[in-house]
Amino acid sequence: VMQLVQLPFSRGISLDWMASGDPRLEKLKKILNLGYRLLKQIVKGDTAAAVDLHHFLPILLQQQGRGLANTITLKELFIGKRKLLSSIGPDLIQLFMDLLTQNKDPRYIDFLLSICTVGEEPLPAVQTIIATQLFEKNPQLLPRCQLETGPGQPTRLKFLIPASKVTAFKKGSTRISTWLNVADFNDLPLIGSKDRASHILTAPFDTLEESEKMLRYFIRFTNLSGKIAVGRNQ
Predict the structure, then answer these.
(1) For a designed S-S bond to 109, which of 8, 100, 105, 220 qualifies (C-beta 3.0 to 4.6 A apart)?
(2) Three-class secondary structure assignment of 19-44
(3) To the nearest whole number, what is the mean pLDDT of the chain?
């Protein structure tokens, strides 16, 4: 399967071209997406298969952020596999910091969430690397929060994802970054039997509005902060 995934690039198609959105590559991209979904299923719960796929880790990392939907494959490669998790170093974590700087996609945070623990057991070495890279070296990725209070008014929690452009909040034709009120999402209609926040966390990412993507980022980042602290006293 990895030979299939690599074949187009060995025949002259560049990763930049693949990521450009060229409609001529859409069918090929769908085939590669299916290939990565198959790899995800192959390594799920199978340490031996994951070790074999781990030999191709440089290729998997090189293709991150190129629209090939292989972050879920990388996540499944490591999840629950202590031997592979223990091999994670600062370079891999910094790659995801760089990806988040380019595109604040909460699916990158989902990957970081998945490597903080083995089951319920914390992995202090990985937690420390993520905490250092995130809070000390890349604070620009942190959501900003503020509480608004007033006489006779409920307290409101608002958040802002720095350098984000929220399409749901526009003035004229200009896209603007806006403080979002968490409670506003609870006032929106249900999606089937789910409240709007639950829908946002589980819906296919590409189907969400920009403001919903920002809420998902905020929630996942909060989850990650908790995961980093699991089993830690400092």
Answers:
(1) 220
(2) HCCCHHHHHHHHHHHHHHHHHHHHHC
(3) 87
